[in-house]
Write a structure and sequence with these properties.
253 residues; alpha/beta; D-Maltodextrin-Binding Protein, domain 2; 2 domains; nine-stranded mixed β-sheet; 23% strand
Length: 253
């Protein structure tokens, strides 16, 4: 049997113990600071791209800003419950899943990421999501990355999908044949590639590019409107692109 691992934003099919999506949290958020959550980790390209943009945006509105990292599934549940003001970067179609009714997507995008497939096998080449159809691959994805779940449901039987939380296990899963391909954002892979075992994991095909958007809890709709306007203003005056260009330069590309 061929084994395939697909991973993006976040092992076993363990569900995070958190507040159900239809409940709200009693957590009191600070009045002078905005706290957004992200599935990206500090030092990862995606995190570094969005942090300075949000810091400048909320500075213009008059707030301090904090960006905190959480596992992907937990982050969504916690934001939906009101523990944070919003999620910093999610796919456009997240709101269409109906799983997080307390979240509203803003109009202005925050970043773009590339989704690729990775494997230790030289005989595997993936050109798009449909390449997974009718293949006897075991596909691993990061727990809580809703877009991966949505796309895999179209082409891969559920029994062949392996959801994981600890990405450092990828090399072991690949080398033992429990999975064949790992799919994730290039941002996350580049963050992990210096970990032991990743030297043998290679890119076997780009799947697509995704544009990500801010999502704000509905308790803070006015804040969401103001943030949307400031992000548009920053794109028009060039600050948005300047800040992200500086990140690419500092990280060497």
């Amino acid at each position: 049997m061929l084994n395939f691992i697909l991973l993006l934003e976040f092992g076993c099919n363990r569900q995070d113990q958190s507040i159900p999506a239809n409940e709200t949290s009693s957590n009191i958020l600070p009045e002078n600071k905005i706290i957004l959550v992200t599935a990206a980790e500090k030092g990862e390209l995606m995190y570094e791209l969005i942090f300075p943009v949000y810091r400048e945006a909320f500075k213009r509105i008059g707030y301090e800003f904090e960006l905190t990292s959480q596992p992907a599934e937990r982050a969504l549940v916690d934001v939906n419950s009101g523990r944070y003001h919003g999620d910093a970067a999610r796919i456009y179609h997240l709101s269409e899943t109906g799983e997080y009714p307390n979240l509203t997507r803003l109009n202005e995008s925050i970043c773009r990421i590339t989704i690729s497939s990775y494997s230790i096998r030289s005989d595997i080449q993936i050109n798009n999501w449909e390449s997974l159809k009718n293949k006897d691959y075991i596909v691993a994805i990061r727990l809580g990355i809703k877009y991966f779940e949505m796309m895999l449901a179209r082409y891969v039987d559920e029994a062949y999908i392996y959801k994981i939380t600890d990405m450092k296990n990828i090399p072991i899963l690949l080398s033992t044949g429990r999975v064949d391909i790992y799919i994730d954002s290039e941002s996350r892979f580049n963050f992990l590639k210096n970990e032991p075992g990743f030297e043998n994991v290679k890119n076997v095909g780009v799947l697509e590019e995704l544009i990500l958007y801010p999502y704000i809890n509905n308790n803070h709709k006015e804040l969401g409107t103001r943030l949307d306007n400031v992000l548009k203003e920053m794109k028009n005056d060039g600050t948005f692109y300047q800040l992200q260009d500086e990140v690419y330069e500092n990280l060497g590309g």
